[in-house]
Predict the 3D structure of the following.
Amino acid sequence: MYPWLSGQEQQLTALIRQQQLGHALLLKGVEGIGKRALAAALAQALLCQHTNVADNKQGVACIHCHSCQLIKAGNHPDLHVIGGQQQRSIGVDAIRQLTQVLSESARLGHGKVAIIEQADKMTEAAANALLKTLEEPAGEATLLLTSAHPERLLPTIRSRCQQWLLPVPESDVVLRWLSGLGLESNLAALNVNQGSPLGTRDYLAAGTDKRRRELLQQFGQLAQLPQTLTSVQSGLLEQPVHLLWLQLLLQDALQLALGLSSTGLRLADSEDLCRALSQRGPEKLRQALTSLLQLRQILQPGAGRPVNAGLQLGQWLNDWLINIS
């Protein structure tokens, strides 16, 4: 288990041992915190044939019994998983099929477990189809739901679940873990990934942090090298998160322009660049930041009528160059 979730796992498996875990559990926390791994560990503990034996004080899975070996092989007949990153939505047919399976007797006689990953992707019809099962699960069925956006779930779904919040882990814990993986971790990388440990791991492994520093440096040099505007524009449009990088940079620059301490800069590894940008003054930085936030908002998927992202960003960059001249 990930180090920042080990305490949560111990608490939840203790509830399993004490038979105090509800029949429906909602694990909620930021994207990339490890909800899937924790749900899988709880499912194994629930299905383990030795979880309830007298000498098992913690309720953890034994990993040796037939049930645990089937889970390891990925073919346990009483464990059912739906949803996940690859699905845009979870439809009513998938939920109806799940409820039908859960109504049947357990194949190994030790209960049934269903994991619904990213449960907020359920359509309204799917969520409504799940309500009765959440209210009166058949037999020893346990449902484990995960969500990074629990507010998108129907209130009736949330109210029927035992909710468990997974807090954003302490940065030093995550940075040590990343270093143990052989990655050159830094707090700025964690911040641009909004504290997500797994997101930061993938970001660093892909070498994206180098791209962030290069792109923001190019942006900082626009006044001296205006001919690079097209390159900066295309770079910022490569991924939606690139505009977040720019937002964090301007926020740090504004912090310094206001005479505040450099402690707490989100992009501490770009402090020199932030100080140079802070010379533009708080008013110009505030205006640029406000319009950038508005731009990010209108470029969000589903924000309304499609817009020309290149045109909108190009206008913002031109305004930036005029304001800093």
Q: What stands out?
A: The mean pLDDT is 91. The radius of gyration is 24 Å.
